[in-house]
Amino acid sequence: MVADAIGDEIIFSRDDQSMEATIIQLCRSQGLSLGLAESMTGGLIASRITSQPGSSDVFKGAIIPYSTDIKQSILKVPEGPVISKAAVEQMAKGACTILNCDISVAVSGNAGPTASEDEVGRVWMATSVDGIVESFTVKWPFDRERVRQFTTISVLNALRLRLNSRQ
Q1: Do the beta carbons of residue 160 and residue 23 sit within 8 Å?
Q2: Among 53, 102, 110, 116, which residue's beta carbon has the most beta carbons within 10 A?
Q3: Which one, of 91, 117, 118, 119, lies nearest residue 105 by Cα?
Q4: Residue (of 2, 72, 65, 7) closest to 37 by Cα position
Q5: How far is residue 118 from each of residues 2, 130, 155, measured CA to CA in Å?
Q6: What kind of architecture, by CATH, is found in domain 33-166?
Q7: Residue boundaries of the structural domains of the chain
Q8: Calpha distance 167→137 (Å, rounded)
Q9: Helix %, strand %, coil % for the chain, to 5?
């Protein structure tokens, strides 16, 4: 079967379940609560999570710190670039603390069209699971909306893979 050859890194559902429904199911089955800190996506991840029936069972909320001063004052992001590994990892930790949740996702980046701090399309993403934060960066070659969409699905997939590895 093709799905078996491709593997679970790419195939997240075999019954047409959405990524966000998969995340909610994994959180529910593992007794975990989820929080978000999303800057560049501006609530897009939260919107996808809350579009699912039963999301309130696991979803605590989202912090959408669009400005640097809010990232620093609320999430305790250190001085320096906010589109960085250090910033997004602190955003993930801060989300767990402020929202009193078990796991979190954080994103910060530049969707364009103009560059600041970093080049357009650069995004840092992080997941916090079991108190351990993992982060990665991507430079998307897309327009603003595609950067936001690809970031959303990519960070949710990263969380899915980490939750799968806990089982």
Answers
A1: yes
A2: 110
A3: 91
A4: 65
A5: 39, 30, 20
A6: Alpha-Beta Complex (3.90)
A7: 33-166
A8: 26
A9: 45, 20, 35
